[in-house]
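pinging the channel bc i need a second pair of eyes. not urgent but kinda urgent?? the chain im working w is below, pasted from the shared doc
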Amino acid sequence: MKRIAIYDMDGTIVCSLHRYRTVFDNDGERIDLGYWRENEHRALEDNLLPLAEQYKKDNLDPDCIVIIATARVLRDADLTFISTKLGDPDHIVSRADGDNTSGGTLKVYGLKPIIEEYRDFFDIEDITFYEDNVKYLKTVCDAFNIRGVYIPSKQGH
């Protein structure tokens, strides 16, 4: 049996609240992207959340394909954090610089070729997506007909 575990980062396995804040506009509360981008260099100060232990166990399981699917633009500090504190996954889906696609759509398009590749070669019995943003969770789970696990957080905007 092969299984796939897909993890969002911020608010799910990583706490980056020290460089996160929200603003309100006509659409409601949302992440202050300007502030986030100004503080991207502080990624190495992020901390692991409890679910990171499961991520690490899944990463050591030879029957589990581990994917990080994040709406972050991954810079050197982010990649260093992943490799030194989390452990490198089998795949990473992330935002390209300048891409303003919604996080859910970004993750669907990034995950699609990966999931299709594994489904073509293995009997994938279990695909689970861990996410703290309800909209992203629904978008991805509906797109692939997979199980989602909502992780409540203060960063799920």
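so The CA atoms of residues 78 and 127 lie 25 Å apart. and Helices lie at 33-38, 51-60, 76-86, 103-121, 134-144. — does that match what u expected or am i reading it wrong
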